[in-house]
Structures are given as structure tokens and as C-alpha cells.
Amino acid sequence: MASLPPTLDFAKTEEEICAKWGAEDTFKKQDSLSLERGDKEYTFYDGPPFATGLPHYGHILAGTIKDVVTRYACQTGHHVSRRAGWDCHGLPVEYEIDQKLNITHRDQVLEMGVDKYNETCRGIVTRYT
Questions:
Q1: How many other CB atoms are found less than 10 A from the CB of residue 73?
Q2: Please, what is the Cα angle at 48 between 38 and 10, to 5 degrees?
Q3: To which H or E segment does residue 47 belong?
Q4: Best label site of 34, 38, 71, 129, fewest CB within 10 Å?
Q5: pLDDT above 80: residue 65
Q6: Mean pLDDT across 61-88
Q7: Is 71 exposed, middle or buried (0-12, 13-18, 19+ CB in 10 A)?
Q8: Alpha-carbon distance 79 to 30, whole Å?
Q9: % pLDDT > 90, the chain
Q10: Residue 56 region, left (φ>0) first, then alpha (ψ -120 to 50), else beta?
């Protein structure tokens, strides 16, 4: 077994690993191998990370949990397509739009038109990304 160096530079090691993964296209290879094997699809839609505000520590925790879940699915024989931005918890976005447009009742949304309301909500989702 190789001995560890007297000091470890975790940041440098992470950069080296990320560079290696980038050079070897590790995630694309993982995808192609799982498709070749016919692995069962595991669908996980991840929303825009900062739909209603600037990033904070809660985003780090949620991102870590999501990463662990998808990696576990890969390790247990599933094909995982990673797509960011396909799902977003609507309530904080809707609340912000309601405040902006002074909407206080469902009838106002119906009068405006659900399609137009949804379009307005979608318009702010990528503001902080």
C-alpha cells in the first residue's frame, strides 16, 4: 500500500481529479456505458438553483443531497440523465409574482390567464443563474 504524503492539498487534488474527468469525458462515458448495458432509466429533474434569490448554504446542502442520490442510482445499475433546470418549486416564484402584480386571489390569475401567469413566472426563474 502506498504511503500518504506528509501533507495533503485537497484543493489541488480536487482540481487534478476534475481535470482528469474532463480530459477523459468521464460522465459521457458513464452515460454511454449504461445505455449499452441497457440499464433501467432513473429520472431526476433538478430545478434552477437560485430561482428566487442569491445562493446560500441551503443550496449547497440541497445540491449535495441531489448529487448523492443520482450517484447512488448510477452505482446501483441505473442510467441517469442529468438535466438541470427542468423542475422548479413553484410556490416561492408564484409568491414573488403575486407580490409584484398585486395578485391576492385565484380569480385574478384566471382573469389574467394561466398561460400568461405561468409565462410571467418562468420569466424570473433564471434571473439568478
A1: 19
A2: 75
A3: none
A4: 38
A5: yes
A6: 82
A7: exposed
A8: 9
A9: 42
A10: beta
d(CA 19, CA 127): 30
Q: What is the pLDDT of residue 129?
A: 63
* Residue 126: closest CA among 86, 95, 98: 86
Integer Cα distance of 8 and 57 in angstroms? 26
- 16 pLDDT more than 80: yes
Average pLDDT, the chain: 85
CA distances from 114 to 6, 25, 102, 109 (A): 62, 42, 16, 6
CA distance linking residue 55 with residue 107, whole number of Å: 33
80-95 pLDDT, tens digit per residue, is: 887 766 556 677 888 9
CB atoms within 10 A of CB 119: 10
Task: Reply yes or no on whether the pLDDT at 115 is more than 90.
Answer: yes
